[in-house]
Amino acid sequence: MKPPLFWSNSAAAPGWQAWLLSPLARLYAHATARRVAQSGYRAQCPVICVGNINAGGTGKTPTTIALVQHLMARGHRPHVVSRGYGGRLEGPVRVEEGQHSAGEVGDEPLLVAAFCPVWVAKDRAAGVRAAETSGADVVILDDGMQNPTVQKDLTLVVVDAWRGFGNGCVIPAGPLREPVTKGMARGDVLISIGDARAQARFEANWGGSVSISHLKAELKPLQMGFEWDGQNVLAFAGIGHPEKFFQTLTGLGANLLRAEALRDHQPLSTSLMTRLEIDALALDAQLVTTEKDAVRLPRAFRTKVITLPVRLEIPDWRSIDAHLSRLGLD
């Protein structure tokens, strides 16, 4: 489901719908506060949480990949623990690219497993224990900010710079899992993701609310030797904000003849892909999708669809590195 439009209103004028839903929002915020106040498992190695305050996609997966690569470059053995959203396995189970499907472990764990060991576990504490037993010297907890079952040593809060914190209200009055002030109080570093225009918008709307270290980052496409300029494409994406993917393709010079926005994590059935293939042939266009969607493709379509990978660029790691040094992760 797409979020309601009033969620994107400014915090200064959240709208009558938000006001009407504010009693339910207070109940939701109270329930979250009670849940996160619980004390969970204390791991034997540092645990870094990559989470968010917003519901939906903010860029946690590319942030996790960037952090994994940064830690590995420093000589560490990071393992990622995920609940495996969209997968049916309870775990803990280590994700194997050639053995598991997105229907079993979720699409994001399959993507991240190309970079480091990944554990899917509905019970996060059990997943962390499995990672420790298998040799991890640091665990990255994917999307665990509001999950109290594991104690965190460092929490990175990820936000989409353009959307910011929406109308500043908690679900269902707005897009937030908890109030901004509460989330900031439990976070260590805020990472806003977007280009210069988006970052300026975030600063204007939310700069005064940021009470922790703030890093700016941007998703950049990887050039894989494919010539996008003038290429007719039919793009499809089932991510949090597919329009950003479509804008990236346009920015690369692709001739975007059709943009098919799917539900986040939507299964890519053979019937859906056959329809898209027929449409692409009629348009004389190349099928293109994201890395996260590509892991859900039926086997017969994996050679027919081009993937556009992106990576998160963090120009200044100093504030994160200071926390890593504090945790003995020099």
Describe the structure.
The chain has helices at 16-36, 60-73, 102-105, 107-112, 124-133, 180-186, 196-206, 242-251, 270-283, 291-294, 318-326; strands at 47-51, 78-82, 93-94, 118-120, 138-142, 154-160, 189-193, 213-221, 232-237, 255-261, 286-290, 305-308, 310-313. It is an alpha/beta fold and 330 residues long. It has two domains: 47-219 and 313-326, Rossmann fold; 232-308. The strands form two sheets. The chain has a nine-stranded mixed sheet, with helices on both faces. Strand 9 (232-237), helix 8 (242-251) and strand 10 (255-261) form a beta-alpha-beta unit. The model has no long low-confidence stretch (mean pLDDT 92).
Short description:
By secondary structure, the protein is of the alpha/beta class. The protein is built from eleven helices and 13 strands. The strands form two sheets. A nine-stranded mixed sheet has the order 3-4-2-5-1-6-7-8-13, with helices on both faces.
Structure keywords:
13 strands, 2 domains, 9-stranded mixed β-sheet, 330 residues, single chain, 20% strand
